[in-house]
Design a protein that fits this description.
This protein is mostly beta strands. The chain has four helices and 28 strands. The N and C termini lie far apart (about 85 Å).
């Protein structure tokens, strides 16, 4: 028998003006819901298994449903969370990233980039320690290519680290006056960077900017495409930076994009804002306009963000991970014993939500596919298939015929 409950939540959209002169997030209040169904994963695990390892891994992490839903919840409340990486209890993990080409989990622990799993190894095995980008302590990381990771460091620089050669580090140029804080991978090897800028006179706190970094040698299609000639391509010889938003008031602590990269989410303070954007529009100079998507309870700070293909937004906080639907309504919470500093989707088909808290990294089974970076091998394979569809062997003949035809048309029109 399906239980139906009337759920009320007062949505008070905050007034978020254009980014200039600044984004000032408002509060979105969620009154207590009349129905709360808490499914404690520890009780479920105790009934299903008597092993001490299972009992210990479910004692501090559980999934709480905040309302009855007619559909399957994005996270499975009946599957006990599992600790896949054990830590010493200090809040040192600042970033998590799933590396699809190596099937491994990368995390920044106390400024050092570590990689767990890969090549068939278990996630809990001894990690592979990578260099700190020239001795600098890292803050945020994201996949970049098949064997590389882009990372920001505590001195505000942005670097590309090789997973195969721990001494290789390429420093990426940022516009003057900006220091990198967060980095997020986009398609076509682009990087979405959250940077801090010098505070303006009269500003109470830091100002943040969001920009897209495009790598050198990127192949970009021109507007005109022919079924005979294929897409014309241009080659860029240096990194390009395009500012999407500037003078955002407050420190941005989380960034994520929708599955189709049409929406950008930022967390500032206790609010999560969203804006429409187009990563492919290289010629756009318009500043993004943010509106409030959702918010945590008053006096709560939002942290790192993750998104799934259904549009649900996962917000890290002091008491766990809060999950909001595409309309900004809170669906469930992953309760933890300590503050969650980072989260990401990974595993097979991106069907696992990885959550970091002081005692380690936990894996929560998801019912939906998360948004993550596509495998570089698969991306190149798709590009090769797209290019092979155009009959390139006709290109020289078609070009000569087109030129000749245009010449004769112009000649006869000019000589009636």
């Amino acid at each position: 028998m399906l239980m139906l409950a009337t759920l009320s939540a007062a949505l008070v959209p905050g007034r978020l003006p254009s980014v200039a002169p600044g984004w000032q997030p408002g509060w979105l209040s969620h009154p207590p819901l009349p129905l709360r169904m808490a499914l404690d994963a520890a009780d479920t695990a105790a009934a299903a298994s008597t092993t001490t390892s299972t009992a210990s891994t479910t004692a501090s992490v559980r999934v709480d449903l905040l309302q009855l839903m007619p559909m399957v919840p994005p996270l499975d409340p009946t599957a006990p969370p599992e600790r896949v990486v054990s830590l010493d209890g200090d809040e040192r993990v600042s970033s998590l990233a799933w590396l699809p080409d190596t099937n491994s989990l990368a995390l920044v622990d106390a400024g050092t980039l570590l990689s767990y799993g890969g090549n068939g190894a278990e996630l809990g095995a001894s990690p592979l320690e990578l260099a700190r980008a020239g001795g600098r302590e890292l803050v945020s990381c994201t996949p970049f290519g098949a064997a590389e990771v882009a990372a920001s460091s505590n001195d505000g620089t942005l670097n590309v680290l090789s997973l195969e050669d721990d001494t290789a580090a390429e420093r990426l140029p940022l516009p003057a006056g900006l220091t990198a804080r967060l980095v997020h991978a986009l398609s076509s090897r682009r990087l979405l960077v959250v940077a801090e800028q010098s505070s303006a006179a009269g500003s109470a706190g830091p100002l943040s900017s969001v920009l897209i970094m495009s790598p050198p040698g990127e192949k970009a299609a021109r507007p005109f495409e022919s079924p005979w000639l294929g897409a014309a391509e241009v080659d860029s010889g240096s990194w390009r930076a395009r500012v999407l938003a500037s003078s955002i008031e407050g420190r941005v602590s989380g960034v994520a994009t929708a599955a189709d990269e049409s929406l950008l989410f930022l967390s500032v303070g206790g609010s999560i804002g969203k804006a429409d954007f187009d990563a492919e529009d290289e010629d756009s100079t318009a500043q993004l306009r943010f509106q409030q998507h959702c918010a945590l309870e008053p006096n709560a700070d939002a942290g790192a963000l993750a998104v799934d293909v259904e549009g649900n937004v996962y917000v890290c906080a002091a008491d766990g991970v809060h999950v909001f639907d595409e309309f900004g309504e809170e669906l469930l919470t992953v309760r933890t014993a300590g503050r969650v500093r980072a989260c990401c989707f990974g595993g097979s088909n991106l069907g696992t939500l990885f959550v970091s808290q002081p005692d380690g990294v936990w894996a929560v089974k998801a019912s939906v596919e998360g948004v993550g970076v596509q495998s570089e091998v698969i991306r190149k394979r798709i590009e090769k298939q797209v290019r092979s569809r155009a009959p390139r062997f006709l290109s020289p003949f078609f070009s000569a015929f087109s030129c000749s035809f245009c010449f004769f048309v112009c000649f006869f029109l000019s000589h009636p």
